[in-house]
Amino acid sequence: MPGTPSDSPTLDDQPVPTAPERASTSDAVGLMDAALGLAVSAVAASREAVGRGRFVLRPVSAVARAPFRLGRRLIGDRRTGELKARGRSERQHAVAALSQLVDQLTPRLADAVLARVDATDLVLRYVDLDRIIQNVQVDAIIARADLQAVIDRVDVDAIIARADLQAAIDRVDVDAIVARADLQAAIDRVDVDAIMARADLQAVLDRVDVDQVVSRADLDAVIARIDLIRLAEYVVEGIDLPGIIRSSTGSMASEGLLEVRRQGIRADERVAHAVDRLLRRSDRTPASALEADTTSSTSPAASDGQPPTGAVGHGYVH
Amino acid sequence: MEPPAEPGRGTLARIVVPASARSMQGHRAGIVTRLLAGVVDSTIAVLGVGLGYLAVLMVRYVLSPRDFQFVEPGFGLLLLSFLWLLTVYLTLAWATTGRTYGARLLGLRVVDARGRRVRPGVALLRALLCVFVPIVLFWVVVSRENRSAADVLLRTSVIYDWAATPQIPQGEPEKGDHT
């Protein structure tokens, strides 16, 4: 708000001069006033004298102007032009000198004035900042500003470090956000195969209680959906049931024959063991008929759930 | 039916073979069982020669009963007949089922390097070697793989196969067989 006249600085605010300074100042002011009054009186007297002597001097002036008019006609406008040019030159020179003088004096004068005046206080007193701000076009300023440069200079990490994110999160209505989100589109963009490839499914399976899962399953319903006849046919075909019957009911399956075979294998092992000892070499290992297994000691016992045999004859008939 | 991955170790073997003998199924047999099987097969061949001799006598008797006399074939002819009959018998048995009667008794089977039934030519060569050079069998004693000289030459094996595992027919390669 602009200040009232009573608030403006007055002469009373100036420093109080001393007694000699006050006397010299009053003398100078009085002298100037006297000179001014004299000049005003002189002008008034001359006006009065001119007014009274106009009728007397008019014939005289007419006579006196005659030679001037005659001279102007005789001399012509040439002389007048020279005078005008000279006058113009002098005027321009005077204006330039005066401008230079003003340029030199203005900063010093402004410094002197501002040194004695609190400019901020003046602005606060006399300037309506609210009106100025209302008239400012903020959008235009923002449009011209380089916001990216401003953002680059901002230390977001420091801001986040000082921010109370938990409080901000507590104020977020996640349900509302999820309700508005297009989850199907988000799911369509997810590469499930890649995720599964990186997942440790074995660890997941280790944590699953399969027994509990199976105990909750409705096995009766599962069995009801199975075609048991087809399953039985499949099993019979897979296990060669005719071969089993043939092998288990024929003369080849008699206990005597099995004993002969057992004794034969035992004799094979003993002979091999004796020969190996005679030749002072390690016992031979069981050998499969497949060439790929001839150098391997892999025993089919592993597939039968039995411990692998060592040398021939050391793991068979006891 | 899916062919067995290895001879003597199929589903049938796991069902019908006693648990104590399953671990040996598919392994190469030793000298004793093979000799016993050979003895049985030789006995069969001898019986075959004898039956053949009787058949010849019967034919001769039928053709000329009055002039019938017991002929003396001689040892050489009998031996030759025995060897010929044994060779034919072994060849047919190995090329068809992989097992002779003696092998069935002892639970043995002849297979090739891939566990399949041997080819007829291989079976014939193997029978000739075993019949006319029977000493080749005894390489089993010193072989660390229980293979006879004939097995080494012909890349065959004699394995324990108590369950009479169905054999893969010739010319039907197993999975992963590129040869």
Molecular structure report:
Chain A is mainly α and 318 residues long. Chain A is 70% helix and 0% strand. Chain A is rod-shaped. With 179 residues, chain B is mainly α. Chain B has helices at residues 11-16, 19-22, 31-63, 74-96, 101-106, 120-132, 139-142, 149-154, and strands at 108-112, 156-160. A two-stranded antiparallel ribbon of chain B has the order 1-2. The two termini of chain B are 23 Å apart. Mean pLDDT of chain B is 84; it is low at 1-5 and 171-179. The chains are: A mainly alpha (318), B mainly alpha (179). At the A-B interface, helix 15, helix 16 and helix 17 of A face helix 1, helix 2, helix 3, helix 5 and strand 2 of B.
Largest sheet of chain A: none
Structural class of chain B: mainly alpha
Residue share in helices of chain B?
Answer: 40-55%
Mean pLDDT rating of chain A: 76
Q: Regarding quaternary structure, how should these chains be classified?
A: heterodimer
The dominant shape of chain A is rod-shaped
- Overall pLDDT confidence of chain B: 84
* CA distance, first residue to last residue of chain A: 119 Å
Q: Runs of chain A with pLDDT <50, length 5+?
A: 1-14, 292-318
Shape of chain B: elongated
The interface involving the most residues is between:
A-B, 48 and 51 residues
Q: Separation of termini of chain B? A: 23 Å
| Estimated share of beta-strand residues of chain B | 5-15%
Widest β-sheet, arrangement of strands of chain B: 1-2
